[in-house]
Amino acid sequence: MAGIRGPRQRAASQRPAANDRWVARRQRMARRRRAFSASAAAERERAARLARRAADTARDAARHPAEHPPPGPFRPGTWRSPLRGLWLTSVLAVVLLAGLTIVAVTGLLSYAAYDPLLGSNDTTPGANLLKFYLFTWPTHPSWWYRVDQGVHVTLGLALLPIVLMKLWSVLPRLFAWPPVRSLAQILERLSLIMVVGGVLFEFATGILNIQDFYVFPFSFYTAHLYGAWVFIAGLVIHVTLKFPRMMRGLRSRSLRRELRTPLAGTQPEEPDEAGLRAARPGVPTISRRGLLAAVGGASLTLAGLVAGQSIGGLARRTSLFGPRGLSATAPHYLPVNRTAASIGLTAQEVGPTYRLTLAGAHHLMLTYEQLRALPQQAVELPIACVEGWSYSARWTGVRLGDLARMAGMPEPAGALVESIQQIGSWRAVTLSAGQVLDPQSLLAVTLNGHILPWDHGYPARTIIPNAPGVHNTKWVNKITFLRQV
Amino acid sequence: MTRMASPSARLDVRARNVAGRVRRASGWVRRWYGANPLHLLALLAAFALAGYAVHAVIAAGQWTGFAVWFAVAIIGHDLLLFPLYSLADLSLRHLLPGGSHGRLPGVKPATRGPFEAFQSAGAQPVDTRPAPGPPPTAAAPGAAAQPGSGAPAWPPLLNYVRIPVIFSLLLLLTFFPMILGLSAPELHRASGLGTGPYVWRWLGVTGAMFAISAAAYALSTRRAAGRARPGGRRD
Q: A interface mutation test: which of B47, B77, B195 has the most A CBs within 10 A?
């Protein structure tokens, strides 16, 4: 408007005195009409041009879909966070590479701790090749399994915020357009299903399992193991293909400088080869160091609120979210993962009619009193659950080696320990020769100076150094010493 | 070409032929496949290992549940959890000062825009003197920031709300079976314990986090006020 009015006003002021005001007005109106119709025509022209361009774009999009992403997340402009970039993703990746490797190794060691190669122990018979690394689980050091599972569960929880942050940092790539450029890329994207699906599957099943929330339609033990192998396959190939890029990412910025940069100085990263940096980054609302501090803090908080259940002592009081963290109701009492009530144990089964059967070279049956009359040993050993919690306690009972000698088999190849328990898993466990003959392996009858509580396997239970919790069979009524396993 | 070649020269020629053929084949794979042949081999090895594990799942008769949970894990995160938390964050940024849009009513932005502050090297958070240079343009990064008008500057509130909320929701996401009591029957059967305390612990931890955050905010407000007072600037 200013452009139109300016010259017109100037023209009017330059006109000689109003001898023909009427003509001037006619001319003015005519000009205005012409201007109006011209602008209307221009408007029409513009609309037509836009329509033509839209039609061209549509035709072009149909002909070359690769260059025309559909709306929404497929448009690069949708992703605005100025913090996304190769450096941030690489920092999270290197932490996960170290952390997830430890979680995977401790997990695979835990599988070995169950001694699946012995007798009836194996609940995963379908995957013989995946047992390539198994070895007879040792009884020393007695704290190994406790540490292994404490690390597996606690570190796993600590990595959850980092996994989520890493997925956040690369999520735009899920919507990369065009979705595929080559066969190589199709295969690589398929392999990401193994990493992303694998890590989420393992974290979900693991986290639900430590809380006894069995909503999954499969056996935890089986699915968590096989899911881990799918994940490991995906992780190995992902790291193989992306390691050089991760190193370039790490070198692209200085960590020390990032840690000194406040929000006011936070700028987007340089555009990178991976396309992680936003095409049109927005204004940051948190500094990069703030983001890392938040993720690290969340990580420490999650781990810190459970770790006490594995550390024990005073730290146990900090285990606000450990499923067995603050649960000890009496000083001499330890938590359990199977109660006597849950297996329907009756007073009759553990009453005066209770007999312990020992089978070896010959058969013999012992009453509870006879068992108590045998030479008793005292040991200090932890109960360490696969779910991460562990408690150390003092146990007294009869050495399994002594019982083997009584059964006429002082050098057995192993032993099958059976329970009164009729339902549920782990009611029978095969022990290795090393476990039977370890001087600390007991058929225990007391716990911290008290007769075994029912929930802890009264009248007698095994306690084996360094064995997973469920391999310490409760309510034992039969031990068969084996010539071969 | 017509003269007889020595045996060693003939071997040399043959080796060169083989090398050339390998190079041609590799180039052909590269064109057809889109990457180095080793890329293909490595991926096939990974698929073989994962395939073996999946075969074991099938042998265990747990294939359907396994596949469904795998798919739900991916879809649940990428297409449900992620959009939900992004939307929540976006809403919070619109509602609270310090976000890309929000400011305290009647209060000028406490800091200059992050870009301009960085570029103007001094990076002084609040300057009460009128800044020289062209008038501010909100949309253009790189333009001079709006000079503070002397009103006390509030540090952005956003992160002091966002961080404790994220921590609290993360705890809920992780321990919801116990916090909401969903796993109470099984946990009781296994351990004889209840899930009763967990909801209170969650609320307590959440409250503690907000309290810490509020204290940190109060501290940074004090610091900002100290800087804004004439002569109170610490830089």
A: B77
